[in-house]
């Protein structure tokens, strides 16, 4: 059971109770239930002239590996904004989301979900930020063969270059106006 012992709402000591068929830590004094630890990350496959934008990680996790630019979503930021921000921060390249092309689900101590986006290159010459990444550029499949490319990145690049026309596109005109404030994605 996770290493949380006190209620994040009122500070009371949590107890273990069965909720929804699972043992969960819950507060005996208020309605707080600790549902688990989750992380949502995003990665970008920005393709230009049949080359993919990659960065070399300067920090852990993955220090020294070439990966697609990416990071974590912010609490009050739509996912399409998160990935555009991450690409810009890490490389100074501007790109916009065209579709979702992959999803990795990795349950462990922190349940990690990673969403891969295909993005349209707009402008910019790749420059590493010098903090999170120490290398950046557009690379062909042939060039990547001699690089230390992370396994997940190989999978992402294969989808971006060979995956066909499928994927989830942003639904910019949902059937109800009340849904326009959300980031909605759907099949073509």
UniProtKB/TrEMBL annotation:
Source organism per UniProt: Paenibacillus catalpae
Residue ranges constituting the Nudix hydrolase domain according to the UniProt record: 37-162
InterPro entries tied to this protein: NUDIX_hydrolase-like_dom_sf, NUDIX_hydrolase_dom
Entries under PROSITE patterns matching the protein: NUDIX (PS51462)
PANTHER family (UniProt xref): NUDIX HYDROLASE 23 (PTHR43222), NUDIX HYDROLASE 23, CHLOROPLASTIC (PTHR43222:SF2)
The name this protein goes by in its record: ADP-ribose pyrophosphatase YjhB, NUDIX family
């Amino acid at each position: 059971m996770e290493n949380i012992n006190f209620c994040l709402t009122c500070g009371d000591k949590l107890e273990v109770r069965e909720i929804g068929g699972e043992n969960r830590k819950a507060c005996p004094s208020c309605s707080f239930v600790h549902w688990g630890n989750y992380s949502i990350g995003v990665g970008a496959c920005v393709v230009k002239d049949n080359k993919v934008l990659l960065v070399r990680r300067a920090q852990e996790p993955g220090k020294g590996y070439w990966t697609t630019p990416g990071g974590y979503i912010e609490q009050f930021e739509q996912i399409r904004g998160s990935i555009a921000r991450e690409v810009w921060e890490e490389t100074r390249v501007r790109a916009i989301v065209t579709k979702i092309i992959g999803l990795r689900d990795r349950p462990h101590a922190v349940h990690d979900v990673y969403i891969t986006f295909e993005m349209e290159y707009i402008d910019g010459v790749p420059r590493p930020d010098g903090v999170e990444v120490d290398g950046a550029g557009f690379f062909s499949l042939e060039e990547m063969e001699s690089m230390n490319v992370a396994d997940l990145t190989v999978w992402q690049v294969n989808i971006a270059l060979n995956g066909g026309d499928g994927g989830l596109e942003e639904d910019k005109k949902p059937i109800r106006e009340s849904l326009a404030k959300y980031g909605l994605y759907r099949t073509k």
